[in-house]
Amino acid sequence: MTNMGLYQKFPAEEPILSDFKNYLINSLQVPNCQQEVDNVSRMLRYIQPSGDKVSLDFLLKHTETRDYLTQLRRAKMGPATILNYIKNMIRFIQYLKTHLDLAAADGQFYKKCQSYIDFLVTLRKPVAKDLSKLTTKTRFYQHVDGLKSLHECQAVLRMAKKDILTIYGKLMDGDQVASDEKTIFRYYCEAILILGHFQRPGMVEGIQTNEWEKRKNAGGKVCLAVTEHKTATMQIAVCALTMEEAAMVDAYYTWIRPHYIRPDVDNQNRLFVSSTGKRIRSAGYDVTRLQTQ
């Protein structure tokens, strides 16, 4: 996508995109919306390749819109990713319809917005069909080839444990720990929850510091409950760590995480943060990176 120019965006301070972000956060209660705003910004940048401000003329540029989605396919983006771009753009147009000043300036504004949404819905149908076919194909091969065993899934934990214990020893002794060792240690802690306790990446990304501080000891296990996750909204995610696993996560929390905290960066009190101080974006990718170390 970078080589094809599909990652280019409007400046972050562009007024209409900045207002859209505020709309997502304050009106729709979507705090983690930067990816959605970026997707819209990239799509608009392709449709309008010049200028620092978004022109509403894009509502009439159906050909350019279709071309961008075609370019995403050529860049080997999967149907799920393309559907996200379409969904994000539809929500952006719905946001535009709330601007009474835009409607007052253009008597046909609402009609243009609805026409563009209808066009996006039409483009969405074949992409949704492709996603359905891909899902069916994936499940077929899982049925034929079989899923990985529990032992295979946890191989990365076994292979990494020796190095992780070495880093843990350095932390306990107060020795110098390299930045890459700190990162690997965090990856391992995330892998404990995902591979060792079958938690979804969204649960790991959503753990807050106060939830870790409120963990409970029960029957020789350390029970952790998390409220923000991508499962049933009326349930909390719970897992029971061994004492050793809990000691690893607490070592990260006590000795590594504080080095990454920055007063000018809002990490939303997440337990796991990156070296830049921001909340982690993809625990699943972090586990993959641990495997490739």
Key attributes of the depicted protein:
2 domains, three-stranded antiparallel beta sheet, 293 residues, mainly alpha, globular
Question: Can you tell me about this structure?
Answer:
With 293 residues, this protein is mainly alpha-helical. It has two domains: 15-145; 150-292, no CATH class. The protein has 13 helices and three strands. Helix 9 (179-196) packs across helix 13 (283-292). The model has no long low-confidence stretch (mean pLDDT 91).
Average of per-residue pLDDT values: 91
Q: What portion of residues is helical?
A: 55-70%
Terminal Cα span: 26 Å
Please state roughly what percent of the residues sit in beta strands, choosing from under 5%, 5-15%, 15-25%, 25-35%, 35-45% or over 45%. under 5%
User: What are the low-pLDDT stretches, counting only 5+ consecutive residues below 50?
Assistant: none
Shape: globular
Largest beta-sheet characterization: 3 strands, antiparallel
Structural Rg: 23 Å
Quick recap:
The chain has 293 residues and is mainly alpha-helical. The protein has helices at 15-27, 34-47, 62-74, 79-96, 100-105, 109-145, 150-153, 155-173, 179-196, 201-206, 209-213, 243-260, 283-292, and strands at residues 216-218, 221-226, 237-241. A hairpin with a 2-residue loop joins β1 and β2.
